[in-house]
Amino acid sequence: MSLLAPLGLIGLISLGVLILIYLLKPNYQRKLISSTFVWKLSLKYRKKKLPINYLRDILILICQILIFTACAMILARPVITSDSAKLRAEKIIIIDASVSMRTMDGDKSRFQRAVDKTIDLALSSLSDDGVVSVIVATDNPYFVVQRADSSAKRTVLEDLNAISESNEKCSYTKANMEKAMALAENVLLENQEAGVLLVTGTEYIDTGIVEVIDVSNVNSEWNAAILDCQAELIDGFYNFNVDVACYNKNDRIVVYLDVYDVNGTTDTFKYQQTVYCSGDKTVPITFKSGERDAGAGVPILSFSSANVYIKEKDNYDLDNTFAVYGGRKEKIRIQYVSSKTSVFLNSILMSLREELRHKWDIELVKAQYNESSSEEDIDKIALTGFDLYVFENVTPEMMPNDGLVLLVNPGYSIAEIGYEYMGYTYQETLEVGFPHPVNKGIDQSSIEKAIINVGNISNVPAGFDVVLQYSSKDPAVMVKNTSTEKIAIINLGFAYTDISALVEFPIVIYNIFDYFIPSTISGYSFNIGDTVSLRSRGETLSLMTPREKIVYNTFPAQYTIDIPGKFTLEQVPFARAEEDKIIENFFVRVDKEESNIFRRVDELVNPYVAKKPEPIDLDLLIYFISVAVGLLFVEWILKSKES
Predict the structure, then answer these.
(1) 3-state SS of the chain: helix, strand, coil percent to 5?
(2) Residue spans of beta strands (DSSP E) within 167-236
(3) Residue-level pLDDT at 294
(4) DSSP letter string, 612-641
């Protein structure tokens, strides 16, 4: 119970007045009276002076004391405050583990300084019998310590010291503050009065309820960065476009470019440019093809890799280099053999070469084979040395075994692969078979419009998948993809169908090519956190990361990037020797935004804190008034009995 007006207790002085009145009894006057009167009066008082009379007097006094006390309490306005448990002081400390926290100053990074600061805050709180939670904000935040009290001080210290020894626990990505604050909300559900602290090197303009502790050092830290580099092919020559920036320092930066294995040779071209960077602004520069420091300029037609770098001794070195790949395309050899060149299929192959020129250097070799072919023409038809063999209206005497074989309208049985030709079918339409990469993107409602006037009927050889079929359920397009055989069969001739008028069939040809001769990766530059789809033209694919080597044998494989740097892919294509191993590279860079190590963010995400219900106090005024009235009533009854 508490008093809203404690001065009202001054009214208790009235108790002293009451007691004083009882102590100062009135003096009787001396008068001459008859002895008979005195005797009668004495008898009367003797009869009335029973023990109950003394008790009544005491009860009246007690009632009066209680009445005066109740009146004093009424003046003091007593209340009983809500009975809410008093919680111990609690802190939720969030450590920013974004890649910019790897910025070094002396022998310690920002991340290590942030952990050291967290240790000090945690020990201080635990020493005061408080409760501590520690969250590391990576791209997937987690608790290091959750609601630990002073009894767990030793464990807390050991856990925090374990992550302060190096930068291993600091991520290479941006911190996911939304998830970190969501973890903090779990603690705030238990204690809404817990304080939330963020130890970081980023400046936030609006921090909300979060207390931000800055561990950056604006007086000594700075960063020069290669933000991006792109190899641009213009008129057959490569130029290199580079974005450079300098943060927390205005200075002239020398940018170097080394281009390796230029134009199919082992030559390395070296370039450099000096650029003035100021005001945290991005400065674009271009290394134009033909410009070379030593000797006459030579245009760059192809290259294996290029490396852009700076030599500045800044505090953040993860963006001091940038590798560029993809300047030399792998050659894919296609042999197209037909009894008579089909305009439709020839156009598809030409379009395929043009469409994939950014991925492959496709060489298309054409040959004809019919009854009038000379021995010299027949000798030109190769059964080895190509990646794709296309036979249209022609059945090879022996199946090539070192590449994909595409048979279009074979017309004869091929015992070597178990293909049995059974004649013709007329006036058929096409249907999509079971879902398969080859029929991906094919619209059933569109492809069924094509009329197949004459089509081949055959069995489905062992190991083949039917991806398109006739309405009669006979196979129209079949594929087989094993470690020893890669074969596709199109059971119709383009001269007897209007399928060439549909866009779906070129898609089928493209899908066949991509299914059997896939690109290993979709690009040559990625960001941290990207998931890369890996495919192989052989049985296995080796991935060398800056940290480890991984071997895949199931495709497509998925790899989520969690570290920057240069990555290498190695594979031996189907039916090739080890010396024909294909080596490819790609580069993973850190987030460009993290290169600005003194960036300012408008608003910090705050945890949601449920509104704490207002305490409801119990006002005792009405109760004391009721007691006072009741006591007055009791006193009145006692007085009436006395009279």
Answers:
(1) 30, 35, 40
(2) 195-200, 203-206, 211-214, 223-234
(3) 44
(4) PPPP--EE-HHHHHHHHHHHHHHHHHHHHH
Q: What is the dihedral of CA 471, 476, 482, 485, to 10 degrees?
A: 160
What is the token pair recorded at 53? 């009379």
Q: Is residue 534 classed as helix, strand or coil in its secondary structure?
A: strand
In one-letter notation, the amino acid at residue 124 is S
Q: Kindly list the strands in the beta sheet with 78-80, ordered across the sheet, starting from the edge strand earlier in the chain.
A: 2-3, 78-80, 618-619
* Residue type at position 137: A
Which positions ≥6 away from 162 have C-beta within 8 Å? none
Residue 279 token pair = 């005001």
Q: Which of 383, 380, 377 is nearest to 395 (CA)?
A: 383
pLDDT value at position 343?
83
Q: How far apart are CA 226 and CA 224, in angstroms?
A: 7
Q: Judge contact between 282 and 223, C-beta under 8 A.
A: no
Residues whose CB falls within 8 Å of the CB of residue 320, separated by 6 or more in sequence, listed in order: 224, 225, 226, 309, 310, 311, 312, 314
DSSP 248: S
pTM above 0.90, yes or no: no
Check the CA dihedral 524-527-533-538 and report its sign: positive
Q: What is the mean pLDDT of each run of 10 residues along the chain (643 residues)?
A: 68 69 59 66 59 68 77 76 65 97 95 96 94 96 95 93 87 96 95 95 96 96 97 91 97 96 93 94 91 64 96 96 95 91 86 90 89 72 92 89 93 92 86 91 83 85 94 92 93 76 85 95 93 94 96 95 96 89 96 95 91 67 80 76 60
Cα–Cα nearest to 362, from 376, 371, 352: 352
**For the chain, which domains are there?**
2-82+625-642 (no CATH), 90-219 (3.40.50.410), 247-325 (no CATH), 330-512 (3.40.50.880), 525-593 (2.60.40)
Longest dimension (CA), the chain: 177
- Beta-ladder partners of 363: 333
Pairing of strands 525-527, 582-589: parallel
Q: Are strands 195-200 and 90-96 parallel, antiparallel or unpaired?
A: parallel
Query: Amino acid letter at 398?
Result: M
